[in-house]
Amino acid sequence: MRTVTAAHKGANRFGGATGWKPLGPKDLWSLGRENSSEELVSQLEKEWTRNRSAAQRHTKATTFKRKGNHGAETPETETLLQQQGGKRGPLLRAIWQVGRSTFLLGTLSLIISDVFRFTVPKLLSLFLEFIGDPKTPAWKGYLLAMLMFLSACLQTLFEQQHMYRLKVLQMRLRMAIMGLVYRKVLALSSSSRKASAVGDVVYLVSVDVQRLTESITYLNGLWLPLIWIIICFLYLWQLLGPSALTAIAIVMSLLPLNFLITKKRNHHQIWY
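Below the sequence we write its predicted structure tokens.
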């Protein structure tokens, strides 16, 4: 009887007979200041305002020079020049200035990971040479095996560090851009609100921001694969000699086919 009473008291303490209660903010760890929405939105807004002001000053200076060279311009031309000044450049520069340290550290981790990635095949080649030569001391084989194991572990470690930093950067940028959009919506005048539909704002936050943050993961894919191809070609040249040109020719011949298949796939995704 005492056991049942104690259990009943413990159940009431945790919010009912089931012994469970809904999670609240006090049950979770608080975010660091560098990950809070207030800090991130303020940083991005500060950089965006500074870059936008610099772009507007540059546009006004360019417009003044054109007026001085060609005389007075029509109002339509002036409006067109003002629209050209409202480019996405200030926002992209603000995003870069806010997240460049995290992105560069992630890129450095990826480069170190790739160094260890290409070290493993080289060590494996040396290990095969060790197996083929019975006169080589045994300690070299143990050393090569240990180095291969450490290289694989370090390659995985730095690769996961790269993914972690990029995921954190995606979270921060998404939070900052969404907060900046909401601040802009709250500051719009009544005439501007009539010109902008609610669906446009929802689409901007739910789709465009997601696409922008996801593209960060693929930025290093614009230049790193070229280095991978060159290093792989050098490895093949050491192993096969001029015969490695055949493999390169086959890979290059498949690139147009891959481009065509990707284009067709994107077309079907859009229309179907």
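Confidence is low (pLDDT under 50) at residues 1-14, 72-86.
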